[in-house]
Amino acid sequence: MAELPEIPKRGTGAPLPRWPAAAEASIAAGGSGTADAIGRWLRERGKTLDCPLVAGVAERIHGRVLASEGDPERGERALEASVRALEAADMPFELARTLLYLGDVRRRTGHKRVARETLGRARSIFEALGASTWVGQVDESLGRITGRRPSMGELTDAELRVARLAAAGARNREIAEQLFMSVRTVEGHLSNIYAKLAIRSRTELAVVLDDGPVRGQP
Fold first, then answer.
1. Residue 217: what pLDDT?
2. How many C-beta atoms surround the C-beta of residue 91 within 10 A?
């Protein structure tokens, strides 16, 4: 394997070198050997540099390799570790990519509800970033999930409160202020709401709310 370039230090804002993308491409092409080697090296570098971005990308590669080699349970755990690291790194695009792959693994193992929620969160992030190509990939994955359409009754009380305000046209910051939540918490609730209801927008949410009674409403 060729010598790998230096990884940017934490806090520099520099992008990762292009070879992690090569690792992902290798997995997509059905060859995990190169990806596994890059992932292992990245994991060590992530620990040495105390860099959550590097650690998160490394765990994503590791999880995808495991899943592609027939070990979805360990792959899911690695992808969950990637989510935690990328949340700490505050890298929404990379986080959404991991959520997409994690949702796919959960879908393939039959965990449809959790997969739908995970993919819904990924979709919301990509949509907020204007990453339309990635939104399309999430939609393809969501389309592979079969089963009944979830109902409003499956939303938690907190999600219902957020849903009502969002459907009424309130912005995320306004919802956060009214419900004494952080904006990130509101975004998380909306992701879960969209995923549970298999919808994509506030407009669709308003339609669903108008279609019938909601738990907790007359």
1. 37
2. 18
Alpha helix locations (H) across the chain?
19-28, 33-49, 52-68, 72-89, 92-108, 112-129, 132-143, 157-167, 172-179, 183-197, 202-211
Pick the CATH number of 152-211 from 1.10.10.10, 3.20.20.30, 3.40.47.40, 1.10.3720.10: 1.10.10.10
pTM above the 0.90 mark?
no
Determine the pLDDT at residue 43.
Answer: 80
Instruction: Examine domains 22-143 and 152-211 and report if their fold is the same.
Output: no
Across the chain, which distance is largest between two alpha carbons, in Å? 66
Q: Which residues 6+ apart lie within 8 Å of 102 measured at CB?
A: 63, 76, 79, 80, 82, 83, 118
